[in-house]
Write a structure and sequence with these properties.
Elements lengths: L2 H6 L4 E8 L3 E10 L2 E11 L9 H13 L2 E7 L5 E5 L3 H6 L7 E6 L3 E6 H10 L7 E3 L1 H10 L8 E6 L3 E8 L2 E9 L27 E5 L8 E7 L27 H33 L10 E6 L5 H10 L3 E6 L2 H13 L2
Parallel strand pairs: 1-4, 4-8, 9-14, 14-15
Antiparallel strand pairs: 1-2, 2-3, 5-7, 6-7, 9-10, 10-11, 12-13
Length: 349
Amino acid sequence: MGIKTIIQKKFPNLFVCVVFNENECTLRCKVLQNDTIRNTFSKTFSIEFSQEALDKNVENYIIALQEEYHFVYIAFLLNSMGQGAIEGCSSASFAKHNVDMQNVHHAAISNLWSVYASYIEIKWAKNIFSEVGLDLIYSPFIILNDFVISQKLKNKPTCYILNCQDFFVLAIFEDRKVHFGAFFKTQSDTSFAHSSESNDWETEQKEESIAELGEMPEIEESDNDEMSDLAELGDIDDFRSVDSFADMDDVKTLGHFQGIDSVSQEDSSLELYGRDLLVYKYLKSSLEEYYHNPLYQSEFIEEIVIFDGYEISSDLIRQLEDELMMDVEIHKVDVADRMCDIAIKEIFA
């Protein structure tokens, strides 16, 4: 650790982790000083999602934080299409999975598997935060991996899911090795990717900046290997969103008319039911791909472990258990909070 870093640690360092949902933006902030978390706070904004710029209220809030703290690090969870995870790290592995290494930023995880994201998506993220700056971009597969290795590792293929409000990622792990990975949107995003006529996978040039995606320590107790976030992505050596709803005043009803609370609850239930159907559909199709595609040396999956950062209904759990004959294990998690912890380890490893 350099002298500059040692001195810097004596001052408050603010880490701001940004998570977009369809109509919300959540900021989880942690203040680190002398290796101790001095303060943790969150802010959630209702936003109209834009592909061109950060919501002005969010931008102004971050600028105010940057004026208050001398050392500020902004991290962003990449929540768009054009990313994934594959087994292997070589060019042959990418070719085998029909991923053009020239058009994606990729990172090796423990020399066993890789995460990748298109340069289009990385450039889009950096443009969105152009007024405030962006230090770290995280692949959700990195967050999932951190949750996985925090548990007792399993020596048989097991399906893991990181469930967020408008997307989820799925990966089949065997110990620390990933055999299969997939990213799925579950909300009506205005665009699944941020490409345009002038920016596409064939024409986008490699970007070398952002710290471009920064080097990052492996999140393990025993190893000190380095990994990057998807921000640079660099070489990576190992890889609970906060839902806030304003309370509504009670509404008296006349006759058969329902109160606003009742209607709202029904709408939420229907929305969750529709989302659960999508999750089940994507999960089932992923398992079929894993079982039947000769790319994968598949074994029968008996267990699914869900790190739930949003909401999973009991109906979906029963469906997984009854129809797919899988044991289901659920862990409620805070994705933004974990991302903050990973960012801190990266900067002050």
